[in-house]
Structure formats: C-alpha cells, structure tokens
Amino acid sequence: MCSRFVPPVQEVIEEYWGLEPNAHPAWAPSIHPRAPGPFIRAKDGGRELVVGQWALIPNFAKTAKLPFSTNNARSEELAQKASYRDPWKHGQRCIIPALSFDEPNWETGKNVWWRFHRADGMPWGLAGIWNTWIDYATGEVVESYSMLTINADDHPLMRRMHKPDPAFGPDEQDKRSVIPIEIGDVDPWLHGNVEEASRLLRLAPVEVFTARPVIEKQQQTSLL
C-alpha cells in the first residue's frame, strides 16, 4: 500500500491535465495519509483541481477523524466495501497527480524505501476515488480521496515491494500496486460509466516504471 507521494506544483498539474488556473490552498512537498493533497475530478463535462485529505471520509462517518485507514482502497473490493461502494457507484473517480511515490522493500530483511518515477519523465496520474463529507453539527465540508490499488503478485517489479506476511505462503501474499491512468484514458476514467472505468483497473507494464532505493538524508551526509 502506498503511504507517501510527491505531487507536482499546481502550474504543472494545470498544464499537463488541461485545467483552468485557479486559486487553491497550498499542499506540502510530500503527502502522507490524512494530509491535504491535490486531486483531479470531473466537473460539468470537464475537469477540476481540488485539494482534499488523503484518506476518504465516507458519508456514514460521525467525525472526519476515522479509527481506520482509508488512504488506499483495494480496487477488487470497491463495489462491496462500505467506505467505497457509494463513491464508486456514483462515479466519484479522480486522478491523483504525483511526480513520484514510495514503497517499502523488505528483500534485505528490513525496510528500504524505493522511489518510483515514470520512465518517460512525465507525472503519474494515479487512480483514486473521492467523497465530500459534511459535518452536519458544524456545517464543515471536507473533501477527501483514496488511492486505488490492485493485486501485483505477478508483476516483475511491484511484487518485490512490501513486507511479506508470515501467515501466508509466497504465492498468497496479495502484493499491491497503484494504478496509473494514462493521459489518453483520463476522460474515460473521470466521465465513463462503471464498466468503462473498470476496464482501466489494470497494472502498468514494468517498462513504464523507473525505481531505485531512496537515499535518506543521513545516508547522503555520510557519502559527502
């Protein structure tokens, strides 16, 4: 499951995804769960940029602070899971723009973060779903979104990520990957029906990715 990513600056998002310039709250250089970040959704036949919490708040939630994690959503369970089935049914799909995202690799026996860029140098447009939650006690409106994932057990690169679960065998791990939406598929993803969108829930070929271990600050200092 993805737990941190780096979004482009607003001007890059607007240019790459063909959005009208607009004023938005600032977001951090790196986004973590429950922090505000940018996402793109359908509006009036077009697209709009929104800033919302990375962790979808379902309509049934009593408060915006959930006792469970919703930053990632398994795409295979969207139609069944209570937190996601209404946004999925109502076409509340979004694009999450990212210059890179990080995943943990445990092949050495400990967590080594890897960073993933696109091999063509373009931003990622990652599949997500969104919701608008209203606190009826205060009138507060909170935008939020979840990043979708898909099984990656057979993917040459993404199956190497995440800590193995000792309760399951090597072929039962349910390794996960984010789902890139290519630029030519943005409109079908945002505006299409559920069947059309479902066809875009697929793994990207390994050649789309470029990945390497992250050199953390303390490691960089020791190399100087």
Automatic annotation (TrEMBL):
Matching Gene3D superfamilies: SOS response associated peptidase-like (3.90.1680.10)
InterPro entries cross-referenced by the UniProt entry: SRAP (IPR003738), SRAP-like (IPR036590)
Enzyme class: hydrolase
Enzyme Commission number, as recorded: 3.4.-.-
Keywords: Covalent protein-DNA linkage, DNA damage, DNA-binding, Hydrolase, Lyase, Protease
GO molecular function: lyase activity; peptidase activity; single-stranded DNA binding
GO biological process: protein-DNA covalent cross-linking repair; proteolysis
Record Pfam families: SRAP (PF02586)
Similarity comment text for this entry: Belongs to the SOS response-associated peptidase family.
Official protein name in the record: Abasic site processing protein
